[in-house]
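Justification of computing resources. Each target in the renewal requires a structure prediction run like the one illustrated here; the chain below, 259 residues long, is used simply to show the kind of job we budget for.
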Amino acid sequence: MAFLQIKSAGQIYFTKHSATPALEDISLSVKEGEFVSLLGPSGCGKSTLLSIISGLLRPTSGTVLLKGEKITGPHPKIGYMLQQDYLFPWKTIEENILVGLKLKKELTADKKNEVFSLLKQTGLYHTRNQYPSQLSGGMRQRIALVRTLATKPHLLLLDEPFSALDYQTKLKLEDLVSATLKKNQKTAVLVTHDIGEAIAMSDTIVLLSTNPGRLFCTFQVPLSLRRLSPFEARQHADFPLLFQQIWEELEQIEQNDSE
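Resulting structure tokens:
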């Protein structure tokens, strides 16, 4: 049984006068511990698919299963990390990272220590008594990662979490997120427009076409890249070869759209 299974998912947006298909017949299986990236042109439905997986959006057709359980709404074992950190500005970093456990009434001394251990892994334990306004954008995204992992989600959804950061910070955060997810044996689905980011972080890359969004093709990232950190993978000889292959497929998608 697949850890995450999407079966013939489709999404249509209705108005009084029209019905616009956003996704059509999406079927995808993700193994436990796998890192999958969704790539494709703007408007291909990547973020819509992530919302369906999270349970925030009910698909017009099809189903989503997590460990065999049908997702019908927001799920306590699915974490969602967005472009913006959405930290509460009036709460300290410690209060922000513990808010999920408090809301679930699961905050114990042991779990608090586990979250602090995660905070130490990100190198930000010293900020626990500070406020978000005192931290840089990259630091706040690291805090957002700790907050997301604090409730021990089985599945982590990442919607372009590095896109608002400068390039150097982005590369450092890619390494940190990748190492943290591997250490904690997390399954993840990333939405990105960045081919390099998808290659550097993923086990599998899924390309979506547009109008409506459909599965176009899938790439398996070679082990030679997967066993390296994202930064190291970008320096490997296999990286530009895969980049070129994916680029050509994206060009084909755009060509098909223009016909």
